[in-house]
Amino acid sequence: MGEPTFTLPEIIDNENGWGPSPAMLTEKFRDIPYAPYSKSDKLGKIADWSTPEQKEKESTGRQRQGYRFREQYTAYGHGASSTFTYTHAEDEASFSVVDNRSAAQKKAASYRTTGSTKARGANRNQQQQRQQRNGQYQRLGAMNRGLTGSKANNSNVRRRFGWKDYDKNQRTRDASVTVGPEWKVLEEIEFNRLSKLNLDVDEGDDISSHGFLYHYDKSYDKVTTKTEKPLVPSERFRLFVSASEDPIIEQLARDDEATVFSTDAVLSMLMCAPRSVYPWDIIIIRTGNKLFFDRRKGVYDYITVNENAADPPIETGDKDNINSPNSLSLEAIDINHYFSVQVLNEAERYDFKKQNPFINSSEDIEIMAPCAYRYRRFDLSIKEEEDISLIVRTQLDSVVKQPSGDSFITIKALNEFDSRAQGAGGSLDWRQKLDTQRGAVVATEMKNNSFKLARWAVQSILAGADQMKLGYVSRVNPKDRTRHAILGTQMSKPRDFAAQMNLSISNGWGIVRTIIDICMKLPEGKYVLIKDPNKPVVRLYSVPLNTFETEDDVLDDGEDIDEEEEEIIEK
């Protein structure tokens, strides 16, 4: 035997980079797909063609304490596994399976696969119960399915209607404001990215307090469903003054006391944005190195009802529908206003050092709802050399005497319209369950009104309130939206209430700091942050300076307002 021989194969080195060299691209290898790879990849990963294609537009994470977005990047060779994805070139629409078995064979096969007679009986009973509970079945033939050929002959398919949202039409909502042709989109941020932000902020400092408060009437803590009290309408009204029209904020801005200015209503909307479903918009004005978060003129703070329910109220277009989203919102505004005035004891009064900045005479005191305003400053700086501070005007509604001293509170009201109507969100009947199953009622309200309750908790925390008073107000008659009764009250600490809702205040501050950073990089001007009416997305637009300055722009949402809305706007 001769000596064994071994000949090394030819090695062609690509001196100009990675991958096959031009010398290798012969007729033998010309049609073979090549997947580029990164230098940082392991050798075993070069031939790994089974991994699914990665998302190139994957949501980015957090950077530096979580408040800033990490820039998107795509590594060399990223997503190259799609090169080897097999795609059948021919049309498979005409493909069908022909079953030559007889009806008797099919029936026997079905009995073999469904188990024992006892199990089949139980399955039939369950199907009958589901059919009674969730609506009827409807058989769709080949004409409805658009099937042809042998597939149409075997299309005895049954679909179940009324089960969750499977067969419901997609609901579309109108935006809160019409986007003008000259508006430019600057940023688009998804809610899942906002939910990942985080920024820890210390407790705010009080700058000044204005107005006076009446003491809370503790007799309402004893109200139950059996001793309900009627809700009394009040002739007093509240003011909705924007941050840019607030004389105190204007003076603080001139004195260079902070960088960003806002109100608790606007700031809470931004901090709880990932929970919102209905559309909204916020005006952002940059003047020099100052930012003002504001609302449009003539737009007051709407209070939604069952916004987060799985089956929220539907806008039918019928103005007489008292359970439409718009009607329920106006009803909730009235209920909150009347309740916050009724539960006060005007015999006892607490005065702050400074007068209410929106009251010009003693007559205004008699016709305005009593409340106090706290201007508080929060430090949003990340580095020591930064100076990003925010001043927010907050509101307090009442004061309660405690052994340790006076305790400031905010007052809100939840309202029940009809537990059996569409949009009720599976809520319990308060008159039957509120006293015995308070926890179940609260849990349902937290689910159906997550955005609203989160905003109330954030507003109370921003104001430095010690407690938050919640009232439960229901219609006397489900068909009448004008008469209501107080069925009970509940006192909670704002931070404990936020914890029950899984509400992260640091996440809200992260959202605020992110929007501030984006706007600080923009030139001076006016901008609008708009929540998409049908998607969990917010968009930042650049708009002309005169936008929303005329009456036509104020009501630019394309909808006519009724007399009740006009009255509220005038107030």
UniProtKB/TrEMBL annotation:
<feature type="region of interest" description="Disordered">
    <location>
        <begin position="106"/>
        <end position="135"/>
    </location>
</feature>
<comment type="subunit">
    <text>Component of the eukaryotic translation initiation factor 3 (eIF-3) complex.</text>
</comment>
<comment type="function">
    <text>mRNA cap-binding component of the eukaryotic translation initiation factor 3 (eIF-3) complex, which is involved in protein synthesis of a specialized repertoire of mRNAs and, together with other initiation factors, stimulates binding of mRNA and methionyl-tRNAi to the 40S ribosome. The eIF-3 complex specifically targets and initiates translation of a subset of mRNAs involved in cell proliferation. In the eIF-3 complex, eif3d specifically recognizes and binds the 7-methylguanosine cap of a subset of mRNAs.</text>
</comment>
<dbReference type="GO" id="GO:0016282">
    <property type="term" value="C:eukaryotic 43S preinitiation complex"/>
</dbReference>
<dbReference type="GO" id="GO:0002191">
    <property type="term" value="P:cap-dependent translational initiation"/>
</dbReference>
<dbReference type="GO" id="GO:0098808">
    <property type="term" value="F:mRNA cap binding"/>
</dbReference>
<keyword id="KW-0396">Initiation factor</keyword>
<keyword id="KW-0694">RNA-binding</keyword>
<dbReference type="GO" id="GO:0005852">
    <property type="term" value="C:eukaryotic translation initiation factor 3 complex"/>
</dbReference>
<dbReference type="GO" id="GO:0033290">
    <property type="term" value="C:eukaryotic 48S preinitiation complex"/>
</dbReference>
<comment type="similarity">
    <text>Belongs to the eIF-3 subunit D family.</text>
</comment>
<protein>
    <recommendedName>
        <fullName>Eukaryotic translation initiation factor 3 subunit D</fullName>
    </recommendedName>
</protein>
<feature type="region of interest" description="Disordered">
    <location>
        <begin position="36"/>
        <end position="64"/>
    </location>
</feature>
<dbReference type="GO" id="GO:0001732">
    <property type="term" value="P:formation of cytoplasmic translation initiation complex"/>
</dbReference>
<dbReference type="InterPro" id="IPR007783">
    <property type="entry name" value="eIF3d"/>
</dbReference>
<dbReference type="GO" id="GO:0003743">
    <property type="term" value="F:translation initiation factor activity"/>
</dbReference>
<keyword id="KW-0648">Protein biosynthesis</keyword>
<dbReference type="Pfam" id="PF05091">
    <property type="entry name" value="eIF-3_zeta"/>
</dbReference>
<keyword id="KW-0963">Cytoplasm</keyword>
<feature type="compositionally biased region" description="Low complexity">
    <location>
        <begin position="119"/>
        <end position="135"/>
    </location>
</feature>
